[in-house]
Amino acid sequence: MLFATYKDTMNVSKFLRILVVVLYMSAMFVVSHIPGNRLVAPDFLSYDKLLHLLEYMIFGFLIAWALAIHTPGGSSVRKTGLVLIVGWGYAMLDEIHQYFVPSRSMDILDFAADAIGVILGVGLYLLIVNTWSSKISSAS
Fold this sequence. Notes:
The structure is a single chain. By secondary structure, this protein is mainly alpha-helical. It has one domain. 74% of the residues lie in helices and 0% in strands. It is built from four helices and no strands. Helix 1 packs antiparallel against helix 2, helix 1 packs parallel to helix 3 and helix 2 packs antiparallel against helix 3. The two termini are 34 Å apart.
């Protein structure tokens, strides 16, 4: 097909956004699979809970972006709920996975930092989208 329709373009765009999320999840899994005694990090990265929070804040932002939770045509509350379920579910699976990795452990406080990070990521996404859309509508 020489010319793509608007709907085709949106489908490709949605696929690429979801692909970005899947690639990010894969990267998180790979890092999570490194045995704890083989992790090398500079001193400023020794704040474990802060790293969990930032990692999952990015994850929450990406999921919200991939699902376009701000768009009409579906309940934003339902889409936000889906983002939280996916983010928190993956965080829980990640902690369970670490239980089986040598020199790593499952930690409820890591999960708490992950869960807060997902919430902050969704909040940041909504803040950016709402600020951007209000600037566009005020310029019109």
